[in-house]
Amino acid sequence: MSEALAAASETKELLVAPGASAAVVDVFRRQFPGRKAIVVCDPTTHRVAGESVDQRLRTAGLAEPAAYLLSDPDLYAEFRFVEQLESILRQTPAIAVAVGSGTINDLVKLASHRVDRPYLCVSTAASMDGYTAFGASITHRGAKQTFNCPAPRAVIADLEILRHAPPEMTASGYADLQAKITAGADWLIAHSLGVEPIEQRAWAIVQGGLRDALENPEGARRGEIKAIGALVEGLMLGGFAMQGTKSSRPASGAEHQFSHLWDMEHHTHHGLAPSHGFKVGLATLAITSLYEEMLKIPFERLDIDRCVSSWPDRATLESDIRRRFAATDFLDTALQETTAKHVSPDELREQLGRLVRCWPVLSKQLRAQLVPLSELRRRLKTVGAPTQAAELGLTAERLRQTFHRAYFIRRRFTVLDLAIRTQSLDRCLDSLFGPGGAWAS
Ligand SMILES: [Zn+2]
């Protein structure tokens, strides 16, 4: 953890322990000497932690002005709440202390950046890895966007508070952590094909302790201190690796593209957008199932000529994208992102030649990296996260389309790119969605 903190460019201090929030005054004084604090929370986080954090800062003469309560019942990570918070921060030189989970952290992160100030985060749930991530995920004019802004200067994770968070929030965080398995597999592919080299330090930070951190979904479900501690540390580490590389690559692959696509399609279930972790958790299962099919294919005998001859040129690709995304509000994103990773026939031949040569080694590395679908499913069920598409309001057909559509929305090279370049995606999906397949309806 200390190595990871050293790699992090923005976060200087992380405290993970039972009762850690009692140290808020010390942490604040160390990180912001001579400054005053303004606690930001919502009614729920005020009750579980904000009130006592504010009280401690107040007793030490540091809390000024009074805590700011985001009390709108429809509070979510939307830009108008950033503006609201920003106008409050402009009235005071105080440093914001965000007490909450994803939404509050992202709102405070961006609002603080817009007034050019660092901030402190007291987390209230082990629900996602965004606490220590560079950037805030905010809905702006109806579309979810990642705004560039620094991670918090310090994070406090009081395990006594986290263990009492709603179980579905912990389950969501567990699923987000488990996604690092397929994210790592995608990076192995990109590395082997010469597309994006693995940065050893970031890899070690995320993958080093990942298996141990995921070991105890039963304990996480029950709110056991040790399991929650391992979970939250794993999530924070993902953020530190992303700070170090200034990219989400170390912690995000095709499974996150599924989740982003559903966000961009404004997908809701029973009127609500499912949590980030729940979407990513199901997508991790989907991507793992694709990997399991792909690993059955002997790519060392790939017919490269056939793949190159049917590779679309830019004009064909563009009209395909225009057709697929005509009815969406992110056609331009799809065009931009896909064009950015499109290669010429010669470049494709080069990449596939590498694949043929490295497949005996790469396929072994992938088998070692991946966890069997059945085991991933068991863990998600145990921790209380969805394992079936229908639980997120998705039909089998919609899930199948997602494999195709997710490819177009991000330039990141993943197993989807490998499947498309080798013309194996449809073949794999036929068996996954056909009789006896992992997603047979
Ligand atoms: Zn995530």
What is this structure, in a nutshell?
This protein has 441 residues and is α/β, with parallel strands linked by helices. It has helices at 2-7, 24-31, 43-59, 79-90, 102-114, 159-162, 167-178, 180-192, 200-207, 210-213, 217-222, 225-245, 254-264, 276-294, 304-309, 314-324, 331-341, 345-369, 373-383, 396-408, 415-421, 425-433; strands at residues 13-17, 37-41, 68-69, 95-100, 120-123, 136-140, 143-147, 154-158. The protein has a six-stranded parallel sheet, with helices on both faces. Strands 6-7 form a two-stranded antiparallel ribbon.
Q: Can you describe this structure?
A:
- The chain folds into two domains: 2-165, Rossmann fold (3-Layer(aba) Sandwich); 169-433, Dehydroquinate synthase-like, alpha domain.
- It is built from 22 helices and eight strands.
- It has helices at residues 2-7, 24-31, 43-59, 79-90, 102-114, 159-162, 167-178, 180-192, 200-207, 210-213, 217-222, 225-245, 254-264, 276-294, 304-309, 314-324, 331-341, 345-369, 373-383, 396-408, 415-421, 425-433, and strands at residues 13-17, 37-41, 68-69, 95-100, 120-123, 136-140, 143-147, 154-158.
- The strands form two sheets. Strands 1-8-5-4-2-3 form a six-stranded parallel sheet, with helices on both faces. Strands 6-7 form a two-stranded antiparallel sheet.
- Helix 14 (276-294) packs antiparallel against helix 19 and helix 16 (314-324) packs antiparallel against helix 17 (331-341).
- The longest helix has 25 residues, at 345-369.
- It is globular and about 75 Å long.
- Zinc ion binds at residues 128-129, 176, 179, 256, 276, 280.
